[in-house]
Amino acid sequence: MRPAILALLGCLFTLGCAQEPQYTELTLKGDAIAKQIQFGLAGTKGELHADKVDPDGTRHPGCWIQLGPALHDKRFEFSLPEKKVDLGYAGTITYHVADVRLGVIEVAAKPNEFVLTSTFTSEGVAIKGEHSSLGGAVVPGIKLTNMRLVVHLKPVVVDGSITYDDPRVEFTADVDNTFIPRFSVMGYTVDIIDAMTHYRHDLCLAIQRQIQAGLEDPGRKAALADQIRAGIAGQLGG
After folding, report:
1. Residue 194: exposure state from Cβ atoms within 10 A (0-12, 13-18, ≥19)
2. What is the mean pLDDT of the chain?
3. Which residues contact 44 (CB under 8 A, 6 or more apart)?
4. 120 and 208 Cβ atoms separated by less than 8 Å
5. Cα–Cα distance measured from residue 199 to residue 177, given in angstroms and rounded to the nearest whole number
6. Residue 50: CA count within 13 A, CB half-sphere
7. Are 29 and 42 within 8 A, CB to CB?
8. 73: CB partners within 8 A, 6+ apart
């Protein structure tokens, strides 16, 4: 991959001078800036769980992502949707995400953008189900494979300072095709494939929206933009 190039124009002029301003083009290697961003993201952690519910019904977000120490450990929490399957006389099954963890984030420079990629993993099942009266023992868990997060950041100059704009987030995952496709509860047959058809899509879309909203937060945006500027300053200072 050829290094992406980020070109910034610096205006050099003397106050009170009548001559036309002179411009110097500074060519900066995007790969070097990407390494600085990746350094700033070191130590970033994240977990996806079902919300915690108090006895009085108060819900607490079960998902969180915390940026690394270089980004001031800025943390944001959020909730992901559940999937309810109505079994009629046999009750209800509720599916939710469970114990999914963020892996190491890698950063690369591409034409006109920086791309952050990472995987999410789960040691066991990523989606658990619970029956309204029989609990989780009667409901098989579901594994998700190829869970992958991709974030696109477009560098821009605002008020003379480098930052990023229009973060685009993509999250994808596949349902493990080795799980039990059907099971029975109190004589009612549950088709997992049918139940998961839209839930996987809803989960991916919700994760995308929540992480994108987190990146658009002014405080987190400023912290990450500092790493972009530090990468540029390192090249100019060298």
Report:
1. exposed
2. 80
3. 65, 66, 67, 68, 71, 102, 105
4. no
5. 15
6. 15
7. no
8. 66, 67
Q: Give the closest residue to 61 by CA, choosing from 77, 84, 37, 74.
A: 77
Percentage of the chain lying above the pLDDT 70 cut: 81
Tokens representing 183 are 């099971």
Given a cut of 70, is residue 14 above it in pLDDT? no
Q: Are strands 144-158 and 127-131 parallel, antiparallel or unpaired?
A: unpaired
Kindly provide the residue ranges of all beta strands, DSSP E only, lying in the chain, ordered along the sequence: 5-12, 22-29, 45-48, 52-53, 59-60, 63-66, 75-78, 83-86, 92-97, 100-102, 106-110, 113-121, 127-131, 144-158, 161-175, 182-185, 188-191
Residue 235 has pLDDT above 70, yes or no: no
Measured torsion, CA atoms of residues 190, 205, 49, 165, in degrees rounded to the nearest 10: 180
Contact criterion met (CB below 8 Å) for 61 and 51:
yes
Total Cβ atoms within 10 A of residue 63: 21
Element (H, E) at 199: helix 192-215
* Total-model pTM: 0.78
C-alpha distances out from residue 131 to 22, 35, 232, 235, Å:
72, 47, 54, 58
